[in-house]
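Morning. Coffee machine broken again, so started the prediction first thing and wrote up yesterday's gels while waiting. Chain of 484 residues, entered below exactly as on the submission form.
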Amino acid sequence: MAAASGHNARLLALALALLLTALHLHGVVCDPSHTHFAMVSRNAPSWRPDRGGQGKVSAPSLDTCGCGPAPAPADPLKAASLDKCGCPPAPAPSPEPSPEDFLNEKLQALYPVIQAFKATITSDPRGVTASWVGPNLCDSYFGGDMYKGFYCEHPPAPPGATLPKDNTTLTIASIDFNGYGLGAPSLAGFVDAFPDLALFHANSNNFSGEVPDLTGLPYFYELDLSNNNFSGAFPATVVPLGRLLFLDLRFNRFVGTVPPPVFDLTVVALFLNNNGFYGNIPDNFGSTTAEYLVVANNQFTGPIPRSIYNTSANLSEVLFLNNHLSGCLPYEIGLVEGLTVFDAGGNDITGPIPLSLGCLGLVEELNLAGNQLYGHIPDVLCALAKTGKLQNLSLSDNYFHSVGRRHCLELVRSKVLDVRLNCIPNFPHQRPALECARFYADPPQHCPFVPHIPCDLPGFRPPAAALPSAVAAEEGGGGGGGGN
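Came back before lunch.
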């Protein structure tokens, strides 16, 4: 019996020794010098859930002696096990900032707003929200890296107030998330909760939901929601923003008509392109104060509003391209003398080129390609390459039957003027003669030709004078008749 007991004891000791050797070989047993795992764990994402439930990583098992996060106080057995391993204590959670940690009460009030929004973030590919911790909301103002995207300034005096600017109280004045790729189901309750906010830029993110009501922000003047996932009708909350200077809604999925009051906003820049807007461009289009206005790549129909002439004092660049606009090319375009870029390519606009376009002395790019324009390309327009700033003139994919013999021919040779796919005899790369004949036999719409030039152009006498027919044809261009 004693011999059997001794034999069993030796077998048990041998098994225990083999087990301890295996555990050492696999790196499970820890000693005071076993620090590698602890060092790695400090650089790894914390498994502890934050308030938003984001960034969870599975905790390592505490059944073995891995130097992982400390067990809960209710489990003293496992805590004692880690003590024997020589593992360092896990860092304590960051405490909530106390009121005296903030620079002022304004920032203290904004802290929970940011943290609540952080909890709704569904994607953060650049790890921006990791910097949204602690009380230093204005860290960027002092050259720091915390609270990326938030920028502070001293608020101005309220509109209409006699008080001077507040140079003592820093507050968040602008939010710039451009290019961060953040995702969140809504901006409501966030952007509108910053009482001193002047601008919000969020180009190239994954925001959606309703556009917040910002009418309660007295200093707000710039809104950029471009390249996101907003959808539905034109955001009604934007229309009352009377102080708005910059509005960018491009590259979203908005649909429907554009409310006329949008063109009554006192904006400098208005970008509505690359959405699903449809219907006519409102008649009060000419009321806009915008210098840069883009409605391209939508589904707009109807004519370019003749009220465009009212924008002469401010409009510099306007892009109508790639819609379904129709009707005659308005004579009034030539009255907008400050135009530098005019692009209405890729529509169904018809009629002859008004001679008034020869008054666009500042225009650098003029694109009317891909329409149903017809008649003569007048020299008064082509002369802008010499007398003005014209560098690029595209009239391809139309139905023009002739070009001005002095300036236009020279522009064709120098490739400033593109007239491919028209109906010009003896020119290369033109439409088939039968296609041109069919078009001129039944043009889509009769458009009146206005021979008047509303400005003084050297070398071009007003056609109202009794000019010989040949000169009148050259400078006036005729109407929609003719053919191949």
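Residues 2-25 form the longest helix (24 residues). Going to sketch it on the whiteboard this afternoon.
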